[in-house]
Amino acid sequence: MPRINRLIIESGIYHIICRGNNLNRIFKKEADYEHYLYLLESLREDHKFKLYHYCLMPNHVHLMLETTKDTNLPKLMKQINLSYYFYFRRQYKYYGHFWQGRYKSMLISKDEYLLMCGRYIENNPVKAKMVKKAEKYPWSSYRVYGLGIKNELIDENPLYKTMGKDKRNREKKYKEFLKEGLKIKFNNRFLGGKTFIKKMEKKFGVKNVEKGPGRPRKTQKN
Q: pTM value?
């Protein structure tokens, strides 16, 4: 079955996931994480995207970014993934397939789901039992929202200011909010309420749930 084209809209917000092939580590030391973030920053001038949340896990990456009319999302992700692969190959004499297939992209509605998806992204290290608290993990955007630490790479989530009347109150509410958790189905194409999902299904002519290839039918014996 042929793959469908990317579901791209101007000024869309996406949850992007890139996994290492066979779940192999893609970050081995601190400098690797730093280089990936450097690549993200260096490509912003050309692609004009906004980065709201991220989490770099040892074997995969989560990004939540918003595109603009100047953003070519497939080209952006190709540049990031190829550039990081070449860096990794130089550092570790690595040869072979590096990323696990195409990157996953999920369109997100511009409402409370923005915060819910950001929470899911930043909860990854806690869920994986790498740290007990999200603030202890250095390679995510959590510290921007939960601790108020400035990060030039991050554009503030548009809904963050609705969490409280001042900076301290918002940080406190965000810490509490993070504990609630959210389960995301990675075979979904859209994340949002029923109205948003129906609108996107109609626009792109696809169902929200992306079906896998499944098992071949059994041939009937005569």
A: 0.86
